[in-house]
Design goal:
single chain, 400 residues, alpha/beta, Rossmann fold, Helicase, Ruva Protein, domain 3, Ubiquitin-like (UB roll), 13 helices, 14 strands, 36% helix, flat, binds guanosine-5'-triphosphate, binds magnesium ion
Protein backbone atom coordinates (compact mmCIF):
# COMPACT_ATOMS: atom_id res chain seq x y z
CA UNK A 1 0.00 0.00 0.00
CA UNK A 2 1.40 3.42 -0.77
CA UNK A 3 1.89 5.86 2.09
CA UNK A 4 0.85 9.50 1.97
CA UNK A 5 2.34 11.73 4.67
CA UNK A 6 0.73 14.94 5.89
CA UNK A 7 3.10 17.76 6.71
CA UNK A 8 2.41 21.36 7.58
CA UNK A 9 2.54 24.16 10.07
CA UNK A 10 0.68 23.57 13.28
CA UNK A 11 -3.07 24.38 13.35
CA UNK A 12 -3.68 24.33 9.60
CA UNK A 13 -6.06 21.34 9.52
CA UNK A 14 -3.83 18.28 9.03
CA UNK A 15 -5.74 16.18 11.53
CA UNK A 16 -9.06 17.39 10.13
CA UNK A 17 -7.89 16.25 6.70
CA UNK A 18 -6.73 12.93 8.16
CA UNK A 19 -10.04 12.41 9.92
CA UNK A 20 -12.06 13.36 6.83
CA UNK A 21 -10.10 10.90 4.69
CA UNK A 22 -10.08 8.00 7.16
CA UNK A 23 -13.18 8.66 9.29
CA UNK A 24 -11.01 8.03 12.34
CA UNK A 25 -11.76 10.38 15.24
CA UNK A 26 -8.63 12.27 16.27
CA UNK A 27 -8.10 15.39 18.38
CA UNK A 28 -8.80 18.59 16.43
CA UNK A 29 -8.78 22.11 17.91
CA UNK A 30 -8.07 25.70 16.97
CA UNK A 31 -4.75 26.04 18.80
CA UNK A 32 -1.17 25.00 18.06
CA UNK A 33 0.25 21.54 18.80
CA UNK A 34 -2.92 19.55 19.34
CA UNK A 35 -1.46 16.46 17.68
CA UNK A 36 1.51 14.99 19.52
CA UNK A 37 1.37 11.27 18.80
CA UNK A 38 1.17 10.45 15.08
CA UNK A 39 -2.11 9.23 13.60
CA UNK A 40 -1.98 6.43 11.07
CA UNK A 41 -4.98 5.21 9.12
CA UNK A 42 -6.43 4.09 5.82
CA UNK A 43 -7.80 6.53 3.26
CA UNK A 44 -8.83 5.83 -0.31
CA UNK A 45 -7.99 7.03 -3.78
CA UNK A 46 -10.83 7.04 -6.25
CA UNK A 47 -10.78 5.86 -9.87
CA UNK A 48 -13.41 4.95 -12.42
CA UNK A 49 -13.82 1.20 -11.84
CA UNK A 50 -12.93 -1.12 -14.72
CA UNK A 51 -16.35 -2.77 -14.35
CA UNK A 52 -17.88 0.19 -16.25
CA UNK A 53 -16.12 -0.47 -19.55
CA UNK A 54 -16.48 -4.25 -19.24
CA UNK A 55 -20.17 -4.02 -18.45
CA UNK A 56 -19.89 -6.38 -15.49
CA UNK A 57 -20.76 -6.16 -11.83
CA UNK A 58 -17.64 -6.31 -9.71
CA UNK A 59 -17.07 -7.92 -6.33
CA UNK A 60 -14.00 -6.24 -4.83
CA UNK A 61 -11.79 -7.76 -2.18
CA UNK A 62 -8.93 -5.35 -1.49
CA UNK A 63 -10.89 -2.21 -2.33
CA UNK A 64 -14.44 -0.84 -2.36
CA UNK A 65 -16.75 -0.05 -5.27
CA UNK A 66 -19.42 2.63 -4.95
CA UNK A 67 -21.50 3.35 -8.05
CA UNK A 68 -18.99 3.92 -10.84
CA UNK A 69 -15.99 4.30 -8.60
CA UNK A 70 -13.35 2.02 -7.19
CA UNK A 71 -11.88 3.25 -3.90
CA UNK A 72 -8.40 1.81 -3.35
CA UNK A 73 -6.78 1.96 0.10
CA UNK A 74 -3.70 4.07 0.85
CA UNK A 75 -1.98 4.62 4.19
CA UNK A 76 -2.22 8.12 5.61
CA UNK A 77 0.09 9.47 8.30
CA UNK A 78 -0.65 12.66 10.25
CA UNK A 79 2.10 13.98 12.48
CA UNK A 80 2.56 16.91 14.85
CA UNK A 81 2.71 20.36 13.27
CA UNK A 82 5.92 22.10 12.34
CA UNK A 83 6.85 25.71 12.79
CA UNK A 84 9.85 27.55 11.33
CA UNK A 85 12.99 26.61 13.28
CA UNK A 86 11.62 23.14 14.08
CA UNK A 87 14.93 21.56 13.04
CA UNK A 88 16.57 23.55 15.84
CA UNK A 89 13.97 22.28 18.28
CA UNK A 90 11.38 25.09 18.05
CA UNK A 91 7.79 24.10 18.80
CA UNK A 92 7.77 20.34 19.10
CA UNK A 93 10.95 20.13 17.02
CA UNK A 94 11.00 17.81 14.03
CA UNK A 95 11.97 14.43 15.43
CA UNK A 96 8.47 13.16 14.73
CA UNK A 97 9.23 13.45 11.00
CA UNK A 98 10.79 10.00 11.39
CA UNK A 99 7.21 8.78 11.16
CA UNK A 100 7.26 9.95 7.53
CA UNK A 101 10.34 7.98 6.48
CA UNK A 102 8.13 5.54 4.62
CA UNK A 103 6.02 8.19 2.88
CA UNK A 104 5.90 7.89 -0.91
CA UNK A 105 4.39 11.33 -1.40
CA UNK A 106 3.58 14.26 0.85
CA UNK A 107 0.57 16.48 1.23
CA UNK A 108 1.66 19.86 2.52
CA UNK A 109 -1.42 21.28 4.22
CA UNK A 110 -1.43 25.07 4.48
CA UNK A 111 -3.97 27.48 5.93
CA UNK A 112 -4.82 29.22 2.66
CA UNK A 113 -7.15 31.64 4.44
CA UNK A 114 -4.21 33.17 6.27
CA UNK A 115 -5.95 32.88 9.64
CA UNK A 116 -3.05 31.36 11.60
CA UNK A 117 0.30 33.06 12.12
CA UNK A 118 3.79 31.64 11.81
CA UNK A 119 3.40 29.79 15.10
CA UNK A 120 -0.10 28.53 14.36
CA UNK A 121 -1.88 31.02 16.60
CA UNK A 122 -5.30 32.21 15.35
CA UNK A 123 -5.20 35.66 13.68
CA UNK A 124 -7.82 37.48 11.55
CA UNK A 125 -8.30 35.76 8.17
CA UNK A 126 -6.15 37.23 5.43
CA UNK A 127 -3.65 38.77 7.82
CA UNK A 128 -0.90 36.16 7.32
CA UNK A 129 0.55 35.14 3.96
CA UNK A 130 0.73 31.33 3.83
CA UNK A 131 3.22 31.45 0.99
CA UNK A 132 5.80 32.13 3.70
CA UNK A 133 5.04 28.78 5.28
CA UNK A 134 5.23 26.87 2.00
CA UNK A 135 8.87 27.85 1.84
CA UNK A 136 9.68 27.51 5.52
CA UNK A 137 7.89 24.23 6.26
CA UNK A 138 9.20 22.53 3.14
CA UNK A 139 12.60 23.85 4.21
CA UNK A 140 12.19 22.14 7.58
CA UNK A 141 11.32 18.89 5.87
CA UNK A 142 14.24 19.23 3.45
CA UNK A 143 16.66 19.89 6.31
CA UNK A 144 15.50 16.76 8.09
CA UNK A 145 15.86 14.73 4.90
CA UNK A 146 19.26 16.20 4.02
CA UNK A 147 20.57 15.41 7.51
CA UNK A 148 19.68 11.74 7.00
CA UNK A 149 21.51 11.65 3.67
CA UNK A 150 24.56 13.41 5.14
CA UNK A 151 24.81 11.19 8.20
CA UNK A 152 28.20 9.38 8.23
CA UNK A 153 28.78 10.52 4.64
CA UNK A 154 32.59 10.61 4.75
CA UNK A 155 32.93 7.09 6.03
CA UNK A 156 30.30 5.87 3.57
CA UNK A 157 31.91 7.61 0.57
CA UNK A 158 35.39 6.28 1.42
CA UNK A 159 34.14 2.70 1.75
CA UNK A 160 32.26 2.81 -1.54
CA UNK A 161 35.12 4.39 -3.49
CA UNK A 162 37.72 2.10 -1.94
CA UNK A 163 35.85 -1.12 -2.49
CA UNK A 164 34.57 -0.10 -5.93
CA UNK A 165 31.01 -1.01 -4.96
CA UNK A 166 28.19 0.10 -7.21
CA UNK A 167 27.24 3.68 -6.27
CA UNK A 168 23.51 3.25 -6.89
CA UNK A 169 23.36 0.02 -4.88
CA UNK A 170 25.34 1.58 -2.05
CA UNK A 171 23.14 4.68 -1.89
CA UNK A 172 20.08 2.48 -2.02
CA UNK A 173 21.18 0.47 0.97
CA UNK A 174 22.41 3.58 2.88
CA UNK A 175 18.97 5.12 2.46
CA UNK A 176 16.91 1.98 2.92
CA UNK A 177 13.89 2.64 5.08
CA UNK A 178 13.26 5.99 3.38
CA UNK A 179 10.97 4.45 0.75
CA UNK A 180 13.38 5.26 -2.04
CA UNK A 181 13.84 2.97 -5.04
CA UNK A 182 16.61 2.45 -7.55
CA UNK A 183 14.89 4.61 -10.16
CA UNK A 184 14.67 7.50 -7.67
CA UNK A 185 18.42 7.33 -6.97
CA UNK A 186 19.36 7.21 -10.65
CA UNK A 187 17.02 10.08 -11.46
CA UNK A 188 18.41 12.19 -8.61
CA UNK A 189 22.03 11.49 -9.62
CA UNK A 190 21.21 12.46 -13.18
CA UNK A 191 19.22 15.59 -12.34
CA UNK A 192 21.87 16.73 -9.84
CA UNK A 193 24.51 16.08 -12.51
CA UNK A 194 26.50 13.75 -10.24
CA UNK A 195 26.28 10.52 -12.22
CA UNK A 196 29.96 9.95 -12.80
CA UNK A 197 31.60 11.68 -9.86
CA UNK A 198 33.42 9.75 -7.19
CA UNK A 199 31.53 10.00 -3.90
CA UNK A 200 34.63 11.12 -1.97
CA UNK A 201 34.94 14.12 -4.28
CA UNK A 202 31.43 15.42 -3.56
CA UNK A 203 31.61 18.77 -1.77
CA UNK A 204 29.10 19.63 0.92
CA UNK A 205 27.15 21.60 -1.70
CA UNK A 206 26.97 18.61 -3.99
CA UNK A 207 25.74 16.31 -1.22
CA UNK A 208 23.12 18.93 -0.43
CA UNK A 209 22.10 19.21 -4.08
CA UNK A 210 21.79 15.44 -4.36
CA UNK A 211 19.73 15.24 -1.16
CA UNK A 212 17.28 17.94 -2.23
CA UNK A 213 16.88 16.46 -5.70
CA UNK A 214 16.32 13.03 -4.18
CA UNK A 215 13.70 14.43 -1.83
CA UNK A 216 11.95 15.96 -4.79
CA UNK A 217 11.87 12.80 -6.86
CA UNK A 218 11.25 10.30 -4.06
CA UNK A 219 8.81 12.28 -1.93
CA UNK A 220 7.08 14.82 -4.18
CA UNK A 221 4.91 17.42 -2.49
CA UNK A 222 1.33 18.44 -3.26
CA UNK A 223 0.05 21.62 -1.61
CA UNK A 224 -3.36 21.33 0.02
CA UNK A 225 -4.70 24.90 0.23
CA UNK A 226 -6.96 24.21 3.18
CA UNK A 227 -9.65 26.39 4.78
CA UNK A 228 -10.64 27.36 1.24
CA UNK A 229 -14.20 27.78 2.54
CA UNK A 230 -13.13 31.16 3.93
CA UNK A 231 -13.56 34.03 1.49
CA UNK A 232 -10.03 35.32 2.12
CA UNK A 233 -8.54 32.12 0.70
CA UNK A 234 -9.71 32.78 -2.88
CA UNK A 235 -7.12 35.37 -3.88
CA UNK A 236 -4.31 33.60 -2.09
CA UNK A 237 -5.10 30.33 -3.87
CA UNK A 238 -5.18 32.04 -7.28
CA UNK A 239 -1.73 33.46 -6.62
CA UNK A 240 -0.28 30.16 -5.36
CA UNK A 241 -1.60 28.31 -8.39
CA UNK A 242 0.54 30.46 -10.65
CA UNK A 243 3.67 29.57 -8.69
CA UNK A 244 3.46 25.93 -7.68
CA UNK A 245 2.71 22.86 -9.77
CA UNK A 246 0.24 21.17 -7.44
CA UNK A 247 -2.09 23.40 -5.43
CA UNK A 248 -5.42 21.84 -4.46
CA UNK A 249 -8.03 24.14 -2.90
CA UNK A 250 -9.59 22.20 -0.05
CA UNK A 251 -11.89 22.36 2.91
CA UNK A 252 -11.08 19.44 5.14
CA UNK A 253 -13.72 20.66 7.56
CA UNK A 254 -16.40 20.52 4.88
CA UNK A 255 -15.32 17.02 3.80
CA UNK A 256 -15.37 15.82 7.41
CA UNK A 257 -18.88 17.20 7.90
CA UNK A 258 -20.16 15.64 4.66
CA UNK A 259 -18.61 12.25 5.34
CA UNK A 260 -20.00 12.20 8.88
CA UNK A 261 -23.46 13.24 7.66
CA UNK A 262 -23.32 10.48 5.04
CA UNK A 263 -22.28 7.92 7.64
CA UNK A 264 -25.14 9.02 9.88
CA UNK A 265 -27.56 8.54 6.97
CA UNK A 266 -28.52 12.24 6.83
CA UNK A 267 -27.23 12.71 3.30
CA UNK A 268 -25.85 10.59 0.49
CA UNK A 269 -22.42 11.82 -0.45
CA UNK A 270 -19.68 10.11 -2.43
CA UNK A 271 -16.23 11.51 -1.56
CA UNK A 272 -14.93 13.86 -4.20
CA UNK A 273 -18.31 14.66 -5.75
CA UNK A 274 -19.61 18.17 -6.36
CA UNK A 275 -22.96 17.61 -4.68
CA UNK A 276 -24.90 15.49 -2.19
CA UNK A 277 -28.51 14.37 -1.75
CA UNK A 278 -30.46 14.99 1.38
CA UNK A 279 -32.12 11.90 2.93
CA UNK A 280 -35.06 12.73 5.10
CA UNK A 281 -35.72 15.32 7.76
CA UNK A 282 -32.85 17.58 8.84
CA UNK A 283 -32.90 20.30 11.48
CA UNK A 284 -32.62 23.90 10.39
CA UNK A 285 -29.13 24.02 11.83
CA UNK A 286 -28.05 20.98 9.82
CA UNK A 287 -29.55 22.43 6.65
CA UNK A 288 -27.76 25.72 7.23
CA UNK A 289 -24.44 23.95 7.73
CA UNK A 290 -24.92 21.94 4.52
CA UNK A 291 -25.97 25.03 2.64
CA UNK A 292 -22.83 26.83 3.79
CA UNK A 293 -20.69 23.95 2.49
CA UNK A 294 -22.52 24.00 -0.82
CA UNK A 295 -22.17 27.75 -1.30
CA UNK A 296 -18.68 28.31 0.06
CA UNK A 297 -16.97 25.15 -1.15
CA UNK A 298 -18.76 22.85 -3.61
CA UNK A 299 -20.19 25.58 -5.85
CA UNK A 300 -16.90 27.50 -5.83
CA UNK A 301 -14.31 24.75 -6.21
CA UNK A 302 -16.34 21.81 -7.54
CA UNK A 303 -15.46 19.55 -4.59
CA UNK A 304 -14.02 19.74 -1.09
CA UNK A 305 -10.59 18.95 -2.53
CA UNK A 306 -9.77 16.16 -0.06
CA UNK A 307 -10.34 13.34 -2.54
CA UNK A 308 -8.67 15.31 -5.30
CA UNK A 309 -5.58 15.88 -3.14
CA UNK A 310 -5.25 12.15 -2.41
CA UNK A 311 -5.69 11.33 -6.09
CA UNK A 312 -3.29 13.97 -7.40
CA UNK A 313 -0.70 12.90 -4.81
CA UNK A 314 -0.98 9.24 -5.77
CA UNK A 315 -1.38 9.36 -9.52
CA UNK A 316 0.11 12.65 -10.71
CA UNK A 317 2.84 13.64 -8.25
CA UNK A 318 3.44 10.03 -7.21
CA UNK A 319 3.27 8.79 -10.83
CA UNK A 320 1.33 5.62 -10.15
CA UNK A 321 -1.27 3.66 -12.11
CA UNK A 322 -3.94 1.08 -11.28
CA UNK A 323 -3.76 -2.54 -12.41
CA UNK A 324 -6.43 -5.22 -11.90
CA UNK A 325 -5.01 -8.74 -11.57
CA UNK A 326 -7.37 -11.63 -12.41
CA UNK A 327 -7.02 -15.41 -12.63
CA UNK A 328 -9.82 -16.10 -15.13
CA UNK A 329 -9.34 -13.90 -18.17
CA UNK A 330 -12.79 -14.65 -19.54
CA UNK A 331 -14.80 -13.86 -16.45
CA UNK A 332 -12.35 -11.34 -14.95
CA UNK A 333 -12.39 -13.23 -11.65
CA UNK A 334 -10.12 -14.72 -9.06
CA UNK A 335 -10.42 -18.47 -8.38
CA UNK A 336 -13.32 -17.83 -6.04
CA UNK A 337 -15.40 -16.11 -8.66
CA UNK A 338 -14.90 -12.56 -7.37
CA UNK A 339 -15.13 -10.21 -10.35
CA UNK A 340 -12.26 -7.68 -10.57
CA UNK A 341 -11.32 -8.57 -6.98
CA UNK A 342 -8.23 -6.42 -6.54
CA UNK A 343 -7.02 -3.05 -7.73
CA UNK A 344 -3.27 -2.57 -7.31
CA UNK A 345 -1.51 0.77 -7.23
CA UNK A 346 1.75 0.34 -9.16
CA UNK A 347 4.45 2.78 -10.32
CA UNK A 348 3.90 4.02 -13.86
CA UNK A 349 6.24 2.05 -16.12
CA UNK A 350 5.69 -1.22 -14.25
CA UNK A 351 6.13 -4.38 -16.29
CA UNK A 352 4.15 -7.61 -16.27
CA UNK A 353 6.82 -9.20 -14.08
CA UNK A 354 6.43 -6.39 -11.51
CA UNK A 355 2.70 -7.06 -11.37
CA UNK A 356 3.45 -10.74 -10.76
CA UNK A 357 5.76 -9.91 -7.86
CA UNK A 358 3.27 -7.38 -6.47
CA UNK A 359 0.63 -10.12 -6.28
CA UNK A 360 2.92 -12.75 -4.79
CA UNK A 361 6.66 -13.51 -4.79
CA UNK A 362 5.88 -17.05 -6.01
CA UNK A 363 4.09 -15.71 -9.08
CA UNK A 364 7.09 -13.55 -9.87
CA UNK A 365 9.61 -16.35 -9.39
CA UNK A 366 7.73 -18.81 -11.56
CA UNK A 367 6.64 -16.25 -14.17
CA UNK A 368 6.01 -17.83 -17.58
CA UNK A 369 3.96 -15.22 -19.38
CA UNK A 370 0.94 -13.00 -18.80
CA UNK A 371 -2.20 -11.95 -20.62
CA UNK A 372 -3.31 -8.40 -21.20
CA UNK A 373 -6.97 -9.24 -20.82
CA UNK A 374 -8.52 -6.16 -22.42
CA UNK A 375 -6.23 -6.34 -25.45
CA UNK A 376 -6.51 -10.15 -25.51
CA UNK A 377 -2.79 -10.68 -26.09
CA UNK A 378 -0.11 -12.82 -24.54
CA UNK A 379 2.63 -10.66 -23.04
CA UNK A 380 6.15 -11.23 -21.73
CA UNK A 381 7.84 -10.22 -18.49
CA UNK A 382 9.08 -6.90 -19.90
CA UNK A 383 5.76 -5.73 -21.30
CA UNK A 384 4.83 -2.36 -19.76
CA UNK A 385 1.32 -2.38 -18.32
CA UNK A 386 -1.05 0.56 -18.80
CA UNK A 387 -3.22 2.40 -16.35
CA UNK A 388 -6.42 0.39 -15.92
CA UNK A 389 -4.92 -2.82 -17.35
CA UNK A 390 -6.43 -6.18 -16.41
CA UNK A 391 -3.65 -8.72 -16.16
CA UNK A 392 -3.57 -12.48 -15.76
CA UNK A 393 -0.24 -13.99 -14.75
CA UNK A 394 0.69 -17.51 -15.78
CA UNK A 395 3.36 -18.96 -13.52
CA UNK A 396 4.88 -22.33 -12.71
CA UNK A 397 4.16 -21.55 -9.08
CA UNK A 398 0.61 -20.76 -8.04
CA UNK A 399 -0.05 -17.89 -5.62
CA UNK A 400 -1.40 -19.04 -2.29
N1 LIG B 1 -12.62 27.07 8.22
C1 LIG B 1 -11.97 25.93 8.25
N2 LIG B 1 -11.39 25.50 9.38
C2 LIG B 1 -10.73 24.31 9.36
C3 LIG B 1 -10.62 23.53 8.18
N3 LIG B 1 -9.91 22.42 8.48
C4 LIG B 1 -9.57 22.51 9.77
N4 LIG B 1 -10.07 23.64 10.32
C5 LIG B 1 -9.95 24.10 11.72
O1 LIG B 1 -8.58 24.39 11.97
C6 LIG B 1 -8.24 24.09 13.32
C7 LIG B 1 -7.04 23.19 13.37
O2 LIG B 1 -7.37 21.92 12.86
P1 LIG B 1 -6.46 20.62 13.15
O3 LIG B 1 -6.95 19.57 12.21
O4 LIG B 1 -6.44 20.31 14.60
O5 LIG B 1 -5.04 21.16 12.69
P2 LIG B 1 -3.59 20.45 12.71
O6 LIG B 1 -2.86 20.96 11.53
O7 LIG B 1 -3.74 18.99 12.85
O8 LIG B 1 -2.97 21.10 14.02
P3 LIG B 1 -1.91 20.54 15.10
O9 LIG B 1 -2.07 19.08 15.27
O10 LIG B 1 -2.28 21.28 16.31
O11 LIG B 1 -0.58 20.93 14.58
C8 LIG B 1 -9.51 23.46 13.92
O12 LIG B 1 -10.23 24.48 14.59
C9 LIG B 1 -10.28 22.98 12.70
O13 LIG B 1 -11.68 22.90 12.92
C10 LIG B 1 -11.26 24.01 7.00
O14 LIG B 1 -11.23 23.38 5.94
N5 LIG B 1 -11.91 25.20 7.09
MG1 LIG C 1 -3.15 17.74 14.28
Amino acid sequence: MITIGLIGKTNVGKSTFFSAATLIDVPIANRPFVTIEPNKGVGYVKVLCAHNELGVKCRPRNSICIDKYRFIPVTLVDVAGLIPGAHEGKGLGNRFLDELRRADVLLHVIDASGSTDEEGKPVPAGSYDPEVEIVSIQGEFDTWFTDIVKKDWDKFAKTVDLTGKDVVDSLLSKLSGLSINRKNIIEALRKADLMNEKLTSWSNDKIQRFALTLRNVSKPIVIVANKADKEEAKKIIERLKTKYQYVIPASAQAELALRKADKAGLIRYIPGESSFDINGQLSEQQLNALNYIKQSVLDVYGSTGVQEALNIATFNAGNNIVVYPVEDEKKYTDRNGNVLPDALIMPRGSKAIDVAYAIHTDLGEGFLYAIDVKRKIKIGADYEVNDGSIIKIVSTKASK
